[in-house]
User: Fold this.
Amino acid sequence: MRKKQSREKQAEEQKSHIRKLDRIYRADGRADEKAEESERRRSEDRLRTIVRRNYMTAEETEERRSDDQLRAIARRNNESFEVRNQRQASDRLRTLNSRATESNGQRERRIHCNALGNQNRIRFHELLMLDVIYSS
Assistant:
């Protein structure tokens, strides 16, 4: 039993080492590539990603989204004050730009959704308050 576990662990370490070497070799080869080659490679990578995601099950998609959210949270937790301010400023600019180009219908839907969200938040707050009152 222990030999089998040891062999599996050793095989996993070898796979990890091979993946690491593969990344190094690919990175080394990319140092010499031109902008066009770089763009072509990125485009092919995007297409491969799209194809892979098209064949994902709903569970795999949900797991990927969850992993993406966790990575984003970890990245934001580790970012410096300046980086956070810069990200928030670019988010605000993106919001302003999208609002500047939205149609009247889109604007009305956004306002309506915000109003519904605010109502739900108020109702949730009221429920929390009622729960606090009843539990004491």
Q: What stands out?
A: The helical segments are 2-30, 35-54, 58-78, 81-101, 104-135. The mean pLDDT is 79.
